[in-house]
Amino acid sequence: MRKIFIIVLLGIVSVGLNAQKRDYDVAAFLYPAYASDDPRLRPFWPFGIGEWETVATMQKRFPGHYWDRKPLWGYINEADPTVMSMEIEAATEHGVNVFIFDWYWYDGRPFMETTLDNGFLKAPNVEKMKFYLMWANHEVVNVWDTRFAGLNEENVIWTGQIDRQEFEKICKRNIEKYFKHPQYYKIDGKPVFMIYDVPQLIAGLGGMEQAIDALNWFREETKKAGFPGLDLQLTMWSINVNHSGFDGSKTQNPERDFVKKLGFTSATHYQFVHFTDVNRDYLDIMEDVKKEWARIDNTFDLTYYPHISVGWDNSPRTGKSAVVKNNTPENFTKALKMAKEYVDNHPKQVPLITINSWNEWTETSYLQPCNVFGYGYLEAVKSVFK
Fold it and tell me: Taking the model in full, what pTM does it have?
């Protein structure tokens, strides 16, 4: 009897150790606007340091404003491979092992691509980290340009819409240039590609049926390139699951069928601000996050990867903003544990968690060390996932 008890006890200990050893993919969105080598950034930020200019001039533009954040690493050029090498070391040491690059294409060519091409991909330790693309195909309005951001004119500088010819050009380019890179993040061998703004995609391609055809073509092209398929990832957001051009009158679940017809196979969020009121306490927001995750599980036939946002405060761009309150590293740790629990309760899917973000300083949602919390947010990730 004693022998049986010892065997059972050892089995329980073994299971516990295996659970602790599980490797998680912690993916942080990376906003590539903090670069000094991209001339296309100059019209918005003439200092030549990208959107660090918005951070650095905050107190000058709004004297006495409560927002006074400063990066402990300084106003670094993230398109410098030496700098990015340091960031990769810091990220992986603290448990972040994937960067999701916000990727842009405007006016017939890439925009803000140098942080990825010149910084990350040329970093001497790039093999330590995976990456994938989140196509940020939204309109560009005045909000990036601090000289006009406060006017609320919403002038469209660049549209995120593209036609079929340009869509095919983009897809073929990304398959060859990025999907085939050994560090590109794949699930079951399928490159992951996230799309931010579905209405912009549909409008540019000419309608729902045209968008379905284009995305089917994209999947087939990915297969022709030697991959088993494409993991098309949806930015879970109300604008992306409801579309006036889709006839959902004959279905009990129009949101699910809309997403299914387009062929999205997975989803995550980009920001809490996309589905809840963020002008309140962080832990109150997390209660809505729990409800949102449950709603997605009950509504959609796709794999959802839990998302945690560090915070939200857009004041550096506009001078005023909704503000997440009490988003301390301690409360952020509680949120990460909640995401880890979600993943552990969905053992059939890849243990992927997304975080907003690595460096969204002008939206006050970043993991990088600052004068307010030091390395607190990074230490929170490390405490939960390493």
Answer: 0.93
Helix (H) or strand (E) holding 8: helix 2-20
Six-digit token string for 381:
């990730």
Q: Could you tell me the two tokens for 243?
A: 């579309």
**Residue that has been written with the tokens 């398929």 in this structure:** 229
CB atoms within 10 A of CB 232: 23
- CB burial string 102-131: b at 16+ within 10 A, e below: bbbbbeeebbbbbbbbbbbbebeebeebbb
First to last CA, the chain: 38
Whether 348 has a pLDDT exceeding 60, the answer reads yes
Helix or strand holding residue 262 (H, E): helix 254-262
Gap between the Cα atoms of 47 and 251, Å rounded? 53
Residue ranges of domains in the chain, CATH in brackets: 25-385 (3.20.20.80)
- Count of Cβ atoms closer than 10 Å to residue 9 Cβ: 10
Q: Are 276 and 260 in contact (CB under 8 A)?
A: no
Residue 193 bridge partners (DSSP): 133, 232
Q: Is pLDDT of 182 > 70?
A: yes
Note the pLDDT of residue 17.
Answer: 41
Backbone CA torsion sign across 37, 42, 47, 49: negative
